Amino acid sequence: KEKEFQRSSSVSGRKDKKRKRPRPLNKYEAEKKTASISASAKKIKTANMIHVPEEQSIRYRILNFITVFSAISEHVKCKVCDSNVEFKAGSSRGLGLKILIVCPSCNPISIPLIGPAYEINRRFIFAMRLLGIGLNGARQFCGLMDLPPPVVQSTYYIIIKNIHKAASSVCDFFLRQTVKEEIKETCIEKECEDTSELMVSGDGT
């Protein structure tokens, strides 16, 4: 009984282990997040058919931040204390930023992020690569357009890897779908259940 008491007291006296909280990402690490790309690539590889919804209301515009949000702030007040508010930029990374709503009497409010990385940075680099333009060309474009500089070089290579991973998954998916359709059409033509004799044509490139 004495041993059982000592054992139970030692167990009850244990301190609960504190779980380590994940370290917050800095501005460079946030743009290198690859989890969403890997998850999307796995879904594409295992999917039978992809249906992409089209949203006609989504359009992108280049805005003058000071001009636009200064005009908006003249007609907007804080819903808590009815004070005037200001719009400011924060957490800038490449072409992405967070919009802060600053009230002199209340705590600043920031627009929540969807994931740690800004979509505009990946979209911009992807568009530049489709046009055959690399990081230096992207920097020149941003300079000529009076835009903030794009992401740093290390982040640029991470984005390129993410684009390659996503493009490879989409390519593999459609190639598999094409082979399945060709096998189906060939089987119908030859009146058989399965075949490995397929005709392939190419342009030599």
TrEMBL record:
Domain Mutator-like transposase stretches: 68-205
Name of this protein: Mutator-like transposase domain-containing protein
Organism from which the protein derives: Mycetomoellerius zeteki
Compositional bias segments (type: Basic residues): 15-24
Region annotation Disordered: where it falls in the sequence: 1-34
Source superkingdom: Eukaryota
